[in-house]
Inverse folding.
């Protein structure tokens, strides 16, 4: 069953592309027609691409890996933050810090710096600092939290990137391509889809359009997380079963040995009795 449908995408305005003069010829396969100088996206292909991307994201989530969501444009920021948080995935909605993927160790140092500042707050070190020093440190902490707070739990490179508007987030896409990280992207008619592994042709300027697509993708990821949890429970149950079985075998072996010893003892007693009678 499809995770979304034509009517839902139509109501959300996913079919509206950009002006014809702003189009990227590489998007021609996903364009249905032109109306009043505006390209109309083929929503039948969008439905198929959403399903394809959702299934791939489900498998990534099921394997316990992370997907980094990226959307710094005003219309999509809050939607992406809410949806990514709902499946416990990292996201970037402020400025993309250059080298975030290609220079990941440096980014991790900045994240650790936030933890260090928090430690200063908790252990009472602030009491020995001047007001000016405390103000400077607080501002630095707030600045780091604004740009990197949402990726604090990202301890290693993400397994995939989900981008809203690949044209605006071209630096993030290039970094992912360089490192061989798969890119999922909502691609409008003015963007280049050649650097995106999972293209979702749709309007990337409307909040409702982005929300509908993310709903389908995040629902699939939630399914993957739940399946992973269920499999873990099954594996733990299966792991206990052999242990119990082993205990039963050991107990049976001890009982068998006890029975054997008892039989041998009775035989020895009978043998000694025969000798006395003789």
């Amino acid at each position: 069953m499809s995770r979304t449908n034509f009517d839902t995408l139509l109501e959300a305005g996913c079919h509206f592309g950009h002006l014809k003069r702003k189009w990227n010829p590489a998007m021609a396969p996903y364009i249905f027609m032109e109306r009043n100088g505006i390209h109309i996206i083929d929503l039948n292909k969008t439905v198929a691409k959403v399903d394809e991307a959702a299934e791939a994201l489900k498998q990534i989530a099921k394997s316990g890996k992370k997907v980094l969501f990226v959307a710094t444009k005003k219309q999509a920021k809050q939607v992406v933050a809410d949806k990514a948080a709902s499946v416990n995935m990292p996201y970037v909605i402020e400025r993309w810090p250059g080298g975030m993927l290609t220079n990941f160790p440096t980014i991790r140092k900045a994240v650790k710096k936030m933890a260090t500042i928090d430690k200063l707050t908790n252990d009472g070190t602030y009491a020995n600092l001047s007001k000016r020093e405390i103000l400077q440190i607080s501002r630095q902490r707030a600045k780091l939290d604004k740009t990197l707070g949402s990726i604090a739990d990202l301890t290693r490179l993400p397994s995939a990137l989900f981008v809203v508007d690949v044209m605006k987030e071209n630096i993030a896409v290039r970094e992912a391509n360089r490192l061989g990280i798969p890119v999922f992207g909502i691609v409008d008619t003015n963007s280049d889809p050649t650097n995106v592994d999972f293209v979702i042709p749709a309007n990337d300027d409307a909040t409702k359009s982005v929300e509908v697509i993310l709903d389908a993708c995040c629902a699939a990821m939630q399914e993957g997380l739940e399946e992973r949890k269920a499999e873990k429970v099954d594996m733990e149950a299966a792991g206990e079963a052999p242990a119990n079985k082993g205990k039963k075998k050991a107990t049976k072996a001890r009982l068998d040995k006890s029975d054997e010893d008892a039989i041998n003892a009775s035989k020895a007693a009978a043998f000694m009795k025969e000798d006395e009678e003789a």
About this structure: The two ends are 89 Å apart (CA to CA). The longest strand covers residues 31-35. The chain has a mean pLDDT of 85.
